[in-house]
């Protein structure tokens, strides 16, 4: 049986037509007004036509002073809904779901966007000299974040998105609040896990009140930060229980932060357990623990490449949705065949410069350039220089930030 092609009905009643999801990948392509462009429409129609049952957007931001990328889209103005409707129409041509991933980057806002971003505490991110020292958030700042997520959920639903995902992983703001490594607060938003998870849980509650009971709400959550003194697996399991009780519809499990990019690197990453390295997917060991404490549908992203393994994992009930990111760029023409079991493996070779300090930047730059090329209708670009790719993110971010400032 081809389990990838089986449908799944979520707790809210919405049905996904199959078990393959295009996982979130930042697009970096908004116009100078932080709006979607014709490139978004073209790219998402391509992805819709792959046949995947679920597409989740890259970060859409609730605060334009805290963008993960200067090329993000900002969901803070209902006047942009007509443009968003063009995007959602293109991205659902094949009867799939299209969910908006809603986020705030906190201290992971690069200095071209904001040299002193707001964060739970004054804990600077040291990565490629791209990030400035953050300012600790006030109580008012925190409540503005809650309101921002609620407004973004409202805009997403009104624009034709069929669900939302709240981003609480990868070291972005909600992940920063969850982690004792980045949250040193001594008020109701810090200290105990109950307090550190308070912001995420209030946002989930507010978004559910806004969109209603039948609209899918997902949360992307780290299994761990993979950093000493950070968010641990036991912390994550406690938060999973809370999310289950709150009535969310899908949990996507990932891991890591910008300082420990386990969610992005290949299987040689030392922080991935040896037992997991023997299989394709990075977070299946943790998924087994999640299964023991809740029955919320579970999506695992990271490492899946062979049809047989995806089918096996679904057949065994280890997860409910298979999330893939980079294959939807480098293997976009093979996704239909993969769903039909006619393509058995999606080869995704790593991008290497030969210089350890540049490796993750080269990976990020390579796939960012390819994604933009697909969106512009140019197809995949062969033989991109890895060193040049490692510089792309910095140069692109500077260019997009200047575009916004000069508007």
How would you describe what is shown here?
This protein has 407 residues and is α/β, with parallel strands linked by helices. The chain has one domain: TIM Barrel, CATH 3.20.20. It has 14 helices and 13 strands. Strand 10, helix 7 and strand 11 form a beta-alpha-beta unit. The longest helix is centred in the middle third of the chain and has 20 residues. It starts with 7 loop residues before the first strand and ends with a helix.
Note the beta-strand portion: 5-15%
Q: Give the strand order of the largest sheet, numbering strands 1, 2, ... along the chain.
A: 3-4-6-9-10-11-12-13
Helical percentage: 25-40%
Low-confidence regions: 263-273
Please report the total strand number as a whole number: 13
Largest sheet: 8 strands, parallel, barrel
Radius of gyration from CA coordinates: 19 Å
Helix-strand string: EEEHEEHEEEHEHHHEHEHHEHEHHHH
Span from first to last CA? 54 Å
**Helix-and-strand structural type:** alpha/beta
The CATH architecture can be given as: Alpha-Beta Barrel
Taken together, the total number of domains comes to 1
Can you say what the CATH homologous superfamily is? Answer: Aldolase class I
The average pLDDT value, as a whole number, equals 92
Give me the number of helical elements. Answer: 14
Shape designation: globular
Assign the CATH class: Alpha Beta
